[in-house]
Amino acid sequence: MIARIAIDGAASGRLFDYAVPPELAETCVVGARVRVHFGHRAVLGYVVELVAESEFLAAAKADHTPVQAPADLLLDVAPEPQKPSLKPVEAVEGDASVVLPVLMRLARWMAQYYLAPIERCIQTLLPAPVRSGRSREKIRLYVEAAPVPGGPGIVRADTDARPEGGRDEARPSQSPISGGPGIVRAAPTAPKLTKRQEQLVADIRRVGGGWLQQVIAEFKCTAETVRRLENLGAVTIVERQMRRDPFANRRVVPSKPLPLNEDQSRALRLVLNGVSQAEDTSSPPPKPILLFGVTGSGKTEVYLQAIAAVLEKGRGAIVLVPEIALTPQTVQRFAARFGENIAVLHSALSDGERYDEWQRIRAGKARVVVGPRSAVFAPVERLGLIVVDEEHEPSYKQDESPRYNARDVAVMRANLEHCPIVLGSATPALESWKNVKTGKYDVARLSRRAAEDAVMPLVHIVDMRREISEAGQPRLFSQALLDAIKQRLDKGEQTLLFLNRRGYSTSLVCPSCGYVATCEACDIAYTYHRHDDCLRCHICGGWKRVADKCPNCGDPKYKCLGTGTQRIEQIVSACFPHARIARMDADSTSRKFSHDDILGAFKSGKTDILIGTQMIAKGLHFPNVTLVGIVMADSSLHIPDFRAGERTFQLLAQVSGRTGRGAIAGEVYVQTYTPDHPAVQMARTENFEGFADGELEIRRDLNYPPYCHLTCLTLSGPEESAVAALLERIAESVRDKADKSVIISEVVPASLPKANNQFRYQLLLRAPTTSRILPPLSAALAANRVPEAMRLSVDVDALSLF
Ligand code: ADP
Ligand code: ZN
């Protein structure tokens, strides 16, 4: 047997063949971590595939000509000729395959689809603390009282009575102190104890045992005392794994399934059909289901009940949520239904917590995993369902190699696992919507808010072109919004003020009239290149100089830049000196729990006005928020990206969804310079379908995704001319090898043209299918080696053009 191995830590994109010695035949399975000799070093690697014959070996023996690596793994190709003999696998590390076979298949698919080295893809499957091998289980000593002689047999711990602290998981082990077996045996006769000792044993028995440290602290004794009791046979001390539980100190109130409304029942039935269909492995895998439900329509309740059904069948589930929506509120809702069966993977966890959570999943102790994009790789066996909440979220895209989109990887994993997948959103990605229209996905609609008293908010669109101060200056706040805030303050209700900060750094918007310079051929905003004061189109490469004053209204302050949340905070404080105001953005939430603190204060009514960026737009429930102000709705409309309209629609709909969740109807003020833009108009009534239909037409006419696959290459290096020239050559090679359906843009400086003394250039490729672009692109990359000094990033299905 031959093992094809990816070397850990490398990035060559190649597999190497090793012979599996007979004594390792059982353990050297796909996904196993193995030790091999590579050159003169001993290294770790992963078994990607087992084959009967080595192609390398066969070819080398036959005629000494090198063979191509299989196309799906090839990135930088041209394997060196190998000597006609294979080294053996030296050893297998650990006792089970670290990577589940299905995840190994997923990694291979990613390597091929995202043009990333297979080693990187395997690394991506495993959290750092698991991969490094440095993290370990946390083992502590646990004390239990011996059974009462003649009593009712073994006294089992009453778990609820145990002192507070980490939960435990028994681990068969020997007590290092007594050297005796760490199991509870009935003492033959009652040992003779002093009064104080007797009291201590009784105390330990009463609480059902506890960690040695806790027993010492709680009952004011010493380790010596406890050990003496152990020698007397009155207590046992065993090693146990102490789980580092990220949510140990949170109280979870269990929740019961809600009776579903008609829409929800229909959606659940559709998912459960998929679950049944998946049972029959001879049938095709169930179609992905888009759960298209307005904000507050009760999508989460549908997920919860679908997961419950899957658990009933002895299967597990993965729920992906965007990182910033992974708040305690979200986790709580799942924990309330599934308790200990929940594992949470979160970047804010400590290494130890992450390690324990991953091990709990791997061991099948937690069957429901909730986490951000990387949770798509959770080692859940017998996977029965994947849920991707807010499936349109750009944060599902990883911004380093492999640049995968967790939603798409999830669809692929569901396909490999033959299990159903539910993509939930109030504002689906146009990619998903198109899949519904073409019948690739099923759809279930939830068209009303679920809670009985909740209604859709009243949305006002405020035309900011009319809001000029007496001095003739443009203003940030309209009178209507200021009046509305005042009303809420008077009534003791809460306000959310939302600013989308993205955009102003990359495009140029006139602060007086909202004018934006746009490339007419491509219908996207020009990118403003500050260093040479130039406007460039990133699609066609066209450019022009920036006028000194606004071409539309003549304002000379045309080039002045946008507004941040801090500025908004100052203005609001000046207008409402007595209001309690908080700000939540990337700057104010860099501390680990500041996020929770700010939201907690707002939720409990300690804050009147919360000002924030995207962060406050996601999945939060605030019953007392009756006003949402969107300070500059246009800012996301002018990002130089054909998705600007889609992003704006999503943001407006999400933000509006934050209000009117309680008994009081909500109001939304949208301040905009472009009140007639479809993204603004359709968001007013959360009319996604109306928006999507119009937008899809534009995308089709201009040949943008979802009507093509867009790949963005960014090359950076210290010498500008060399960078531009190499990217030109790559473009040229692609042009040679690809057919006419592939659209190759001009090579242009990236919107961030220089960073850390590295010049950056960009190339956009559009193709109707990935099969038209991936082979010519990988061939072009193989033919044009990127020198050490430069870096090339390949972003397949790019979501952002920055
Ligand atoms: P979404 O995920 O679609 O934004 P949620 O699941 O957060 O919506 O639900 C919004 C609110 O409606 C929640 O407070 C939830 O408890 C409530 N809710 C959901 N389903 C029902 C139902 N069937 N009956 C009553 N209330 C419901
Ligand atoms: Zn253009």
Tell me what the structure shows:
This protein is an alpha/beta fold and 802 residues long. It is 30% helix and 20% strand. It contains 21 helices and 32 strands. A seven-stranded parallel sheet has the order 12-13-11-14-15-10-16, sandwiched between helices. It has a six-stranded parallel sheet with strand order 17-27-26-18-25-24, with helices on both faces. Strand 12, helix 11 and strand 13 form a beta-alpha-beta unit. The two termini are 47 Å apart. About 7% of the residues have low confidence. The structure holds adenosine-5'-diphosphate and zinc ion. The site of zinc ion has 7 residues, from loops.
Topology of this protein?
Elements lengths: L1 E6 L8 E4 L13 E6 L2 E11 L3 H9 L27 E3 L7 H13 L4 H8 L2 H4 L7 E7 L22 E3 L24 H12 L3 E2 H7 L4 H9 L3 E8 L19 H18 L9 E5 L5 H14 L3 E5 L7 H11 L3 E3 L6 H12 L5 E4 L11 E7 L16 H12 L3 E5 L4 H8 L4 E5 L11 E6 L15 H13 L2 E5 L19 E2 L4 E2 L1 E3 L4 E3 L6 E3 L19 H11 L5 E4 L9 H10 L5 E4 L12 E6 L13 H13 L10 E6 L5 H7 L3 H15 L6 E9 L2 H18 L5 E2 L3 E8 L2 E10 L2 H14 L7 E6 L6
Parallel strand pairs: 10-15, 10-16, 11-13, 11-14, 12-13, 14-15, 17-27, 18-25, 18-26, 24-25, 26-27
Antiparallel strand pairs: 1-2, 1-4, 3-4, 3-5, 6-8, 6-9, 7-9, 19-20, 21-22, 22-23, 28-31, 28-32, 29-31, 30-31
Helix pairs in contact: 2-3, 2-12, 8-9, 17-18, 18-19, 20-21
The site of zinc ion has 7 residues, from loops.
